[in-house]
Specification:
The protein is of the alpha+beta class. It has seven helices and eight strands. The protein has two domains: about 140 residues, no CATH class; about 50 residues, no CATH class. Strand 6 and strand 7 form a beta hairpin.
Length: about 240
């Protein structure tokens, strides 16, 4: 789906385009309303491409994912044939990577791409200057990004919440010492928080949330994963060798 966009795109516009695109998809797999008390729900994530090469600009959804499920550690596949993390953000990222592979294939076989230029000096493909991507998610990421909201919700429900100041796990002064830094990093797994436990604590790595009696998952929270993507990119390890 393509639509005209303003010179400066705002979040509301991205949201409207994403939801409209989702609503136009077939009903299969979408949440349904069973009765007045039972309403299924899901999380929607999209990646939209902004193309400034057109006079009126162009904005379109190129990747989409929905979902809230994640496999427990006992369900993992040794052969890697099962998707462990099916949260919307992760599915959307996978779809985006598939899109990048398709663009590479077009370049190899047709010597053309709507988003890529080949940098001869560096030997890698780069995005055209007029191309920009936007990432939309219909609710806060699981993990640290949603902890403050969950804490406020517990307070409104009069549930017991221990008040503590937010803090970062890595102390800046200790991290300056290379020996202490190595020790902190080696012990980092001991400071991993499961799901929504200890919601008053921020700055910790967390696993995906789940029922307290469920099989714990090994998948990191979407907050942690998106933070990694914002630093290393969405293209993944294989595509990082060809995309700049």
């Amino acid at each position: 789906m393509k639509t005209a966009c303003r010179s400066k795109i705002d979040g509301d516009e991205i949201q409207k385009i994403s939801i409209k695109f989702f609503e136009q998809l077939p009903k299969k797999g979408k949440p349904v309303k069973k009765n007045e008390r039972q309403q299924e729900y899901t999380v929607l994530a999209t990646i939209l491409m902004e193309d400034k090469s057109f006079a009126d600009c162009e904005l379109k959804v190129i990747a989409l994912g929905t979902g809230t499920r994640c496999l427990g550690s006992k369900q993992l596949s040794d052969s890697g044939t099962i998707i462990n993390d099916s949260h919307a953000e992760i599915i959307c990222k996978r779809a985006f990577q598939k899109y990048l592979y398709a663009e590479l294939k077009k370049y190899f076989f047709k010597k053309e791409s709507s988003i890529l230029n080949f940098n001869v000096e560096k030997g890698i493909w780069c995005l055209k200057d007029e191309i920009k991507f936007h990432f939309f998610v219909s609710q806060a990421f699981c993990g640290d990004a949603s902890m403050s909201f969950l804490k406020e919700k517990k307070v409104l429900l009069n549930e017991n919440v221990e008040e503590k100041e937010s803090f970062n796990f890595f102390d800046e002064k200790e991290m300056e010492n290379p020996f202490k830094r190595q020790k902190l990093l080696l012990n980092f797994s001991e400071n991993l928080i499961r799901g929504r436990n200890d919601i008053e604590k921020l700055g910790f790595c967390r696993t995906k949330p789940g029922r307290i009696d469920s099989d714990p998952t090994n998948s990191m929270s979407c907050t942690d994963k998106v933070l990694k993507w914002s630093t290393l990119g969405l293209n993944g390890s294989m595509l990082s060798n060809v995309y700049g």
